[in-house]
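Page 42, continued from yesterday. The earlier attempt failed because a stray header line got pasted into the input along with the sequence. Redoing it now with the clean sequence only.
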Amino acid sequence: MPPVHSSPYFQMDNPAILSLLRPNPGEKNRKSSSGGLLRMFKLFPMLTSGCKMVALLGRPRKPLLKDSATTGTIFGYRKGRVFLAIQDDPHCMPMFVIELPMLTSLLQKEMASDIVRIALESETKTHKKKLLEEFVWAVYCNGRKMGYSIRRKQLSEDELHVMQLLRGVSMGAGVLPGTNEKETADGELTYMRARFERVVGSKDSEALYMINPDGAPGPELSIFFVRTH
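This time it went through. Structure tokens are written below.
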């Protein structure tokens, strides 16, 4: 199998990211994978407008909900931008929230590849902050630069609304009730929440690897944080 970064979809040549990358799951195993959160998120455009259910997962094949696992939530209105929230505990407020410079519909198209890698890169001249405390991030999706984003200092009403609705939810995907005016203009509010294995490469690099609920042998979604000086 060729190196993981040789694919044109994953042109992440930052050494810090390359050191954290894991091999792709084999093609045979990917085809035999059944279900999964990423697969559910790709089906959102097919959901009816009246659907207000949470699509919860079936029983996993192995115990997945480790105390050390990190919770990650991707959410957004269909016609709006997508948000990323990271929590140590789904019962607590997020330690990191950012509005990514890409539409929810575009992210769903990227998920057609079955593997999605999101990289956030921060340039800074100080060592005083922890990595996830940085504010300005360049955002890449599957090797393509999407633009820049600023980490939220405070959550907006919409973001608080989502966190409150999903309080205590460990993993799942579906459609959430939104505010009437916002929902009418931007479509339905969709979300995907999963547990992630958090790997710290150094004080300037971290990675989150989604724990697959269907037992597939590799991460479908990976999120990288890198700081350059």
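Notes: The helical segments are 15-20, 27-32, 37-42, 104-110, 157-165, 180-186.
Reminder to self: strip header lines before submitting.
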